[in-house]
Write a structure and sequence with these properties.
Radius of gyration: 19 Å
Number of strands: 3
Oligomer: single chain
Largest sheet: 3 strands, antiparallel
Distance between the termini: 19 Å
Number of helices: 8
Strand content: 5-15%
Strand order of the largest sheet: 1-3-2
Shape: globular
């Protein structure tokens, strides 16, 4: 092994160690994790070479922000598998004031299980893309929020666009969920619900295409994490 490769592996190990437990913010932890992934694929670094770094990292659960839109199930599944994680959901009834039209609607709490840096990156990315999708789901002609089947068409396309971009990166990086993470998930699997697809609805191809482009661009824009500050570790 060359000195340059030793130095690159050492940098990747430092990046993977930059978690919230180490004093980073969530956004900083995402940026460091994504930078580490880019170095891993650029230098074709194997999991065996990173064994010491992964052993230092614990497997843990990281909760995303509460959501209630049904399409979040699709988004959580896409994000989890592209960030080396598994995801489970707990459902709570919304505690709203008497007389509210939304009374009884459920809140979904998605939890990402994986190595700490991966799970943190997944939760922050999920939060960002969910907020972005809701913001973008506006009818360009009226400026009003899409509703019903129109909203479902747009958001289904949006998640598909996200998946198409994230999976290109995952295939290049040969990202798979580690065996240790799968084993931890299987121990708790029976106690939690799994992400489920959207219920039956009428498709609007134009809105799905619009959503797909917006989802693709949300990933291409590179706004999934904080500014890349990994040069500070060199």
């Amino acid at each position: 092994m060359t000195r340059e490769r030793d130095e690159i592996i050492e940098l990747v190990e430092k990046l993977l160690a930059m978690t919230e437990d180490a004093g980073c913010t969530s956004a900083e932890a995402v940026a460091f994790a994504l930078r580490a992934q880019r170095l891993i694929v650029e230098y074709d670094i194997s999991e065996e070479e990173l064994g010491s770094a992964r052993r230092k990292e614990s497997i843990d659960s990281v909760k995303a922000s509460p959501v209630f839109r049904e399409w979040a199930n699709l988004l959580a599944d896409v994000v989890a598998r592209n960030f080396r994680c598994r995801v489970y959901v707990t459902v709570q009834q919304r505690d709203l004031k008497r007389g509210s039209k939304r009374r009884g609607n459920a809140i979904n709490l998605f939890t990402f299980l994986g190595y700490v840096s991966d799970a943190t990156a997944a939760a922050v990315t999920f939060d960002h893309l969910y907020r972005c999708g809701n913001t973008l789901a506006v009818d360009a002609g009226t400026g009003r929020k899409l509703k019903g089947d129109a909203y479902k068409s747009f958001t289904a396309g949006y998640v598909s666009g996200i998946a198409s971009e994230l999976e290109k990166q995952s295939q290049a990086l040969m990202i798979v969920v580690p065996m240790e993470v799968n084993a931890s998930y299987e121990h708790m699997e029976a106690a939690f619900a799994k992400a489920t697809p959207l219920a039956g609805w009428l498709h609007n191809e134009d809105l799905e295409e619009q959503g797909w482009k917006n989802g693709r661009d949300a990933v291409r824009s590179g706004r999934l994490g904080a500014e890349d500050r990994s040069h500070l570790l060199a």
